[in-house]
Amino acid sequence: MPTPITLNSKTRWQIPAVLAVTVFVNYLDRNNLSLAIPRLAQDFNWSDREVGSKGELLLAAFFLSYALSNMLLSPLAERFGAKRSVIAAIAAFSLVTTLSAPFGYSLYSSDCPTFAVGAGRRGSHSDVECDY
Predict the structure, then answer these.
(1) What is the number of other CB atoms lying within 10 angstroms of the CB of residue 74?
(2) Contact at 8 Å (CB) between 118 and 105?
(3) What is the Cα Rg of the chain in Å?
(4) To bridge 11 with a disulfide, which of 7, 25, 66, 108 should be the other Cys (CB 3.0-4.6 Å)?
(5) Can you give the pTM of this predicted structure?
């Protein structure tokens, strides 16, 4: 007969606390794009019709990648453990963030740099003032 698992009172309260924090972060993560779409529309001068069509595509791409990453990365997390999975996720996020800095200027802006080195300075053209 298997022995029952006993949890001390501290562990019993840690589990709901970790789950609550996880649900809260998940909720914030899913709502970030809906808050970013008006700013994107302003930056790219989208009309209301463009906001609807392009915003719909952005939300679809986000939720599709969100769902696929949950389904595809969960088995890897189970195989390698929680600690290694979190370290790998932080390393991957840091690498992508670091690599986006030098390419951000050339991809998104011809006048003002989008990375920290050029923040607060004039853009590549002497008559263009960056709006930071």
Answers:
(1) 11
(2) yes
(3) 22
(4) 7
(5) 0.49
